[in-house]
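Hi R.,

As promised on Friday, here is the backbone we talked about, encoded as C-alpha cells. Could you run it through your design pipeline when you get a chance and send me back a sequence?
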C-alpha cells in the first residue's frame, strides 16, 4: 500500500505529512536545500530512547556502565596460570601461604592480587659482551694476572613466594652474587687454571658457593649449572698474551718430545738389561748343570773305585795321560840300542804330518 494512502503519513503512521516522531518535516525556508538541524535530530533520538527504556535514558546509561564495570572486574578477578608458571595471591599486599597451580583461578580483586612466576629453567649470562658495561668481566687471578671471564648459569625457581617477597630484585641479586663468587674463586687460583687446566672444577666450586649464598637469602632459587663460556686476556695485552701462550705450547711440545725420547731410551735400556739378565741366568744355569754333572760323574767313578781300586786307579791314570799327551810332541827311543852307540828315534809327530808329495796328491 503506498504511503500516500495512509492519511498522507509516512511509514511510521504519521498523518498529514508528519514525520516518524509525530511532527512534520522541517521544510526548507525559501527555495534552497538547507541541511537538517543536528540538535533537533539528537533531541528526537533521546525522546525515542525514553519510549523504549522504562527508566529513560539515564537508567540505560547507568545499566550499560554497570555491565561494563562487572565485565572489567571479572577480567581482573579471573586469571589463568600457564603450565610453566605458578601464581602467588596476596591480600592487601600480604602473600598467601598457598601457591596457585596451572589452570583457571578466581580472586576478589582488588582486595586480592596475583603475581605469576616462571618456574622453568632460565639462563643468566654474566660478563658477556653487550650485556653490561665495559670491563664487567675483568677479574684478577691469584698470580696477579687480569682475565676477562664470561660465564652463564642455569637456574630455576623452587619457591615462588620466597622468590617474590624475600628479595627485592631476585634476578639482579643472583647476577651480583654469581659475579662476586666468580671473582673470589678466580682470585685464589693462577691464571693457568681458569684458562685451560682446571676450568670444570672452578665452575663446580662457583656453583656450590652461589647456591650457599642464595640459600642464606632464602630467595627460592636453585642453581642447576654454571658454565664458563669464554676466558680471554684484556684487549690491551692480548697480543703479548698470545705470545706467552705460544711459548707455553712450544714448551709443552718440547717436553713431550723429550719424554718420548726418554721413554724410547729407557725402553731400549730395559730391553738390553733384560737380555743381559737372561744371558746371565742361562750361563748360571749352564755352569750349575755342568758342575752337577761333574759331581755326578765323580760320584759314579768313586763308587766304581770303591769296588775295584787298582783297576779304577789305572784307568784314571791312563785316561789322564791320554788327555795330557794328546796334543804334545811324542818321540819314542830304544834304550837297548844305546849300548851300540846308536840312538834310534821315532818322531811320531813328524810321521803324522803329510809330506809335500802327499799334500800335492
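Update: got your reply. Pasting your designed sequence below so it's all in one thread:
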Amino acid at each position: 500500500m503506498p504511503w500516500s494512502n495512509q492519511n498522507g503519513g509516512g511509514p511510521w503512521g504519521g498523518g498529514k505529512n508528519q514525520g516518524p516522531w509525530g511532527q512534520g518535516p522541517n521544510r526548507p525556508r525559501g527555495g534552497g536545500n538547507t541541511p537538517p538541524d543536528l540538535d533537533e535530530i539528537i533531541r528526537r533520538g533521546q525522546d525515542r530512547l525514553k519510549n523504549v527504556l522504562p527508566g529513560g535514558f539515564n537508567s540505560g546509561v547507568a545499566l550499560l556502565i554497570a555491565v561494563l564495570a562487572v565485565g572489567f572486574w571479572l577480567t581482573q578477578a579471573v586469571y589463568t596460570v600457564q603450565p610453566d608458571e605458578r601464581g602467588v595471591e596476596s591480600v592487601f599486599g600480604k602473600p598467601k601461604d598457598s601457591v596457585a597451580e596451572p589452570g583457571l583461578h578466581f580472586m576478589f580483586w582488588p582486595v586480592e592480587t596475583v603475581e605469576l612466576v616462571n618456574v622453568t629453567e632460565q639462563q643468566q649470562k654474566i660478563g658477556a659482551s653487550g650485556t653490561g658495561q665495559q670491563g664487567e668481566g675483568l677479574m684478577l687471578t691469584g698470580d696477579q694476572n687480569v682475565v676477562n671471564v664470561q660465564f652463564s648459569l642455569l637456574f630455576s625457581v623452587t619457591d615462588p613466594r620466597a622468590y617474590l617477597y624475600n628479595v627485592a630484585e631476585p634476578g639482579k641479586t643472583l647476577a651480583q652474587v654469581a659475579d662476586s663468587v666468580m671473582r673470589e674463586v678466580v682470585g685464589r687460583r693462577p691464571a693457568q687454571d681458569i684458562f685451560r687446566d682446571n676450568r670444570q672444577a672452578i665452575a663446580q666450586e662457583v656453583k656450590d658457593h652461589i647456591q650457599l649464598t642464595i640459600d642464606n637469602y632464602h630467595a627460592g632459587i636453585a642453581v642447576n649449572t654454571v658454565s664458563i663460556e669464554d676466558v680471554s686476556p684484556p684487549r690491551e695485552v692480548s697480543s703479548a698474551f698470545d705470545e706467552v701462550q705460544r711459548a707455553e705450547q712450544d714448551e709443552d711440545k718440547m717436553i713431550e718430545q723429550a719424554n718420548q725420547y726418554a721413554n724410547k731410551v729407557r725402553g731400549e735400556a730395559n730391553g738390553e738389561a733384560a737380555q743381559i739378565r737372561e744371558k746371565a741366568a742361562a750361563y748360571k744355569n749352564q755352569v750349575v748343570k755342568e758342575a752337577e754333572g761333574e759331581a755326578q760323574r765323580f760320584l759314579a767313578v768313586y763308587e766304581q773305585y770303591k769296588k775295584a781300586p787298582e783297576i779304577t786307579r789305572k784307568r784314571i791314570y791312563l785316561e789322564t795321560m791320554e788327555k795330557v799327551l794328546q796334543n804334545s810332541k811324542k818321540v819314542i827311543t830304544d834304550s837297548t840300542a844305546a849300548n851300540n852307540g846308536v840312538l834310534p828315534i821315532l818322531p811320531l809327530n813328524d810321521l803324522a804330518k803329510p809330506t809335500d808329495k802327499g799334500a800335492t796328491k
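One thing I noticed while checking it: The longest helix spans residues 238-307.

Thanks again,
M.
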